[in-house]
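Troubleshooting: if your tokenizer reports a length mismatch, compare your output against this known-good record of 260 residues.
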Amino acid sequence: MQNLFKKVILFATIVLLMSTIPLSAKSYTKLELLNLAGKQRMLSQRIAKDYFYVGQKVNTSKATKQMKSALQAFNKAQKVLSLSIKDDEIQNMIMFVNMSSDEFTTLAQETYSMDNGALVLDLSESMLEGSQYIVDALKNELKKSNSSIVDIAGRQRMLSQRIAKYYISYQAGIKDKNSIVQMQEAVKLFNDSHKKLMANKSNTPAINKELKKVDRLWKIVYKFYLNIEKGGLPIIVFNTTDDIMKKMNKVTQMYVSLKK
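Known-good structure output:
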């Protein structure tokens, strides 16, 4: 009986140890790493968006849970990228993005204020720029035909959350001209990129089906986003941009599978 108990303990210990061992670089293709780095762009905007929603006490419960899970997902992905990419310049950028993420984690624990909100916007831009640098570096290692469509689809995830970030931060009082310009540019880039994806000749019927779902929703809601100065629709913006993000995440995964 004691021997059996020892074997059970040994097995449980081995399982626990294996679960804590990070995945090696061999576990990911370069295209999968590109998708992962692309998703970091989205998370950088989602984290900031959630911060403002919590600060404004709008959709508080959902935004709080989402911010926590987004931070966890971001930090986990950073570890995978760090273990999987050997290029020294990319490693330096990963470390820089980690620093910005750590700063945000500290800010998120403090009481919301306009000053903290401005810092969060700056940090989210730094995290986005750093993540985009990593995406571009990985794209250079891949054939353009294999990486371009994955990058465009993945960027749509980020743009959906960027739109929500600027909408709610404007309502929170950061009402500078830059917020309006960034919102307009994000909407335009999403719209132009959506047309490119819809016209992509390598789309499967399943991809086209998802893109048409996004198309129907986008044609209705994008005018709400552009009406940033009027405001008044924070919950609609939160829910619709999240819906678009989920659909575009699914499309991006489909493109990754298609290009393998």
